[in-house]
Amino acid sequence: MVFTHVLVGLLVAVVAGGGAPSGPLLLAGAVGGLLPDLDMVAAHRRTLHFPVGYPAAAALAGLAWAATAAPAALLAAVLLAAAAVHSLMDPFGAGLELRPWNRDSQRAVYNHALGRWHRPRRVVYDGSPGDAALCVGLAAAAAALGGPAVRPTAVALAGFGVSYALVRRRLADLIPEEFQSLSPFLKHLLARGWRAIRGRTGKHEL
Ligand SMILES: [Zn+2]
User: Fold this and answer.
1) What are the tens digits of pLDDT across the range 31-74?
2) How far apart are CA 136 and CA 31, in angstroms?
3) What's the CA-to-centroid distance between 34 and ligand 1, angstroms?
4) DSSP conformational letter for 123
5) 3-state DSSP assignment of residue 18
6) Domain coordinates in residue numbering, the chain
7) Helices (DSSP H) in the chain: which residue ranges?
8) Fewer beta carbons within 10 angstroms: which end of the chain, N or C?
9) How far is the CA of 201 from the centre of ligand 1 (A)?
10) 203 pLDDT more than 80
11) Cα 45 to ligand 1 centroid, rounded to whole Å
């Protein structure tokens, strides 16, 4: 749902910018929407997912902006709000599994405040037709509210989201069955790449 999350971030920026968001504000929203999933190479849906921490931090940044009108505080508030919505959306999707149609995982997102995982509600899962429809709807809303500055990015993200949904099952087929979720597969690829680089460096040293 990476395209969906980035579109939600754009929409947060559009709303916070009163329908006329600046470039940095849009970037903050997009980065905030993407940020939690960078933990794909760590403990996915745990290391950078904070369903309580991000909303609290976003509220504090919003208060700081209201008190000071500092542009940096608004950027921080938008980034944190987008990351908050991402972390709160994930429990409505599938679990950690790579093939969500198998319903293998009961872990949707880790709640650090409660010290436990939220289970997946499976309303819309990654790359499903519902996810594609959500992408298109969010892109339409962002484009309608944000105007020409947002439209090309929103349309491109919707295009990527729909294309991704069309090949989602085939992408999962390319990954060996032994990998139950994407995160360990990515870590496996990174480790293999690192070993190859070290091997090559070692040969140069000889
Ligand atoms: Zn996520």
Assistant:
1) 999 999 999 999 999 999 999 999 999 999 999 999 999 999 99
2) 19
3) 8
4) S
5) coil
6) 2-181
7) 2-16, 23-34, 53-68, 71-89, 129-146, 151-174, 182-205
8) C
9) 35
10) no
11) 6
- Contacting residues for 52 by C-beta, under 8 A, at least 6 apart: 111, 112, 113, 114
HSE-CB for 111 with a 13 A CA cutoff: 15
Q: In which residue are the tokens 């190479």 written? A: 41
Query: How far is the centre of ligand 1, averaged over its atoms, from the C-alpha of 155 (Å)?
Result: 22
Question: How far is the C-alpha of 119 from the C-alpha of 103, rounded, in Å?
Answer: 11
Residue-averaged pLDDT of the chain: 94
Q: Cα of 18 to ligand 1 centre, how many Å?
A: 27
Distances (CA, A) of 107 to 43, 129, 180: 12, 22, 12
